[in-house]
Amino acid sequence: MLAVCSDLDETPDADTYFAIAKYLNTGEQTPIGKGVGLEIGNTLFFDMAPGEFSYWGACEAERRYARALIHSGHIDCLHSFGDLAATRDHAQRALDELERHNCRIRCWVDHAIAPSNLGPDIMAGFGDDPEHEVYHADLTLAYGIRYVWVGRVTACIGQNVPYSPTTSLRAERSLQSLINTGRDIAKIARATLGDDKYGMHRGNLLMRPFALRDGQRATEFIRCNPHPHGVSVGDDALGFGQAITEAALGHLIQRRGVSVIYTHLGKHVDAEHILPAQTRMGFERLADAQHRGDILIATTRRLLDYLTARQTVQFEASPSLVALTLPSGIPGDGLAWRWQGETPRVTVNGRDVSPVRVEEGWRTWLTLPWPRLSFPLPD
Length: 379
Ligand SMILES: [Zn+2]
Prior knowledge:
Layout: E1 2-6, H1 14-25, E2 29-30, E3 33-34, E4 43-44, H2 60-72, E5 77-78, H3 88-100, E6 107-109, H4 137-143, E7 147-149, E8 153-154, H5 167-172, H6 175-192, H7 199-203, E9 207-211, E10 217-221, E11 223-224, H8 240-243, H9 246-255, E12 259-263, H10 277-291, H11 300-312, E13 314-318, E14 321-325, E15 336-338, E16 345-348, E17 351-353, E18 356-360, E19 363-367
Parallel strand pairs: 1-12, 4-5, 5-6, 6-7, 7-10, 8-11, 14-16
Antiparallel strand pairs: 2-3, 9-10, 13-14, 15-19, 16-17, 18-19
The protein binds zinc ion.
């Protein structure tokens, strides 16, 4: 399972931002070419200088469309509040706007060294420091942010399965890929010696509990860029296709791992096609792998919600009733279990749902549907 989590840094304007979303999520003709029909979300800024797309920098029609994409699940991460959000008032104003329009974003991704970042170490943030004027973590978590990315990356594609040396080392055995693998192994070694900064690397985990400085708790996730020359290379519109190679996808699929890809699809865009040919080929590879049934591509939020559901679901079963209990706000989409006998009544948090019955040889599975998000077109 894979999500592409793209920071919108340097996305020059609304046309580029929306064209990328349409190309990734529909099969229609777009300025980039025919869409690849995947399900890939996007991040959002509020306070940025002109020249980079942001909510407050957009006109009312563009904001309305951005809100439609939040409602549909295609904008699923805040990318800090932006470089210019320096006080609690900036955060409050953005959250008030989201609340007013019933826009629910559940993921937070730190940006560069934005003051509102939540990561204290790598991302130098102050957003969770109650002594600081940009403190907002109480408001932001109360609004509904549940998952946070605070700077940690790995070159290993495929988390929640045992660590495996990077794809590039396996595929090309170059000096650069040896250095990359060495970096990951050094992080694992530091974690083994007790350095919590790299605790996720030790277990090759995608998520872990995260304690903010104000005492609140969230869930941290790690992102991955398997580019052969390092996690900070090819993390943009130019290099995506070099990072997501057939070898990288094969490595993920064969190990049955799950990853959230680190990239910036609005950065270094091509004046003619926005995304250059090799990056479009990277997305076509993803679409092919999904059509073959080898991989499920989901938005960041759906991927994290699904893993959370698997970890937290409680299950009471009798031959006629299966009652699933999940934490508030976590959908049961895609949960599946072995079953013998007639299809029972199934409920999630007391509400009836319709499972799908899947026969696989002599085994039967029941699975809750994974509905496709519906991509809105501008009005
Ligand atoms: Zn950024």
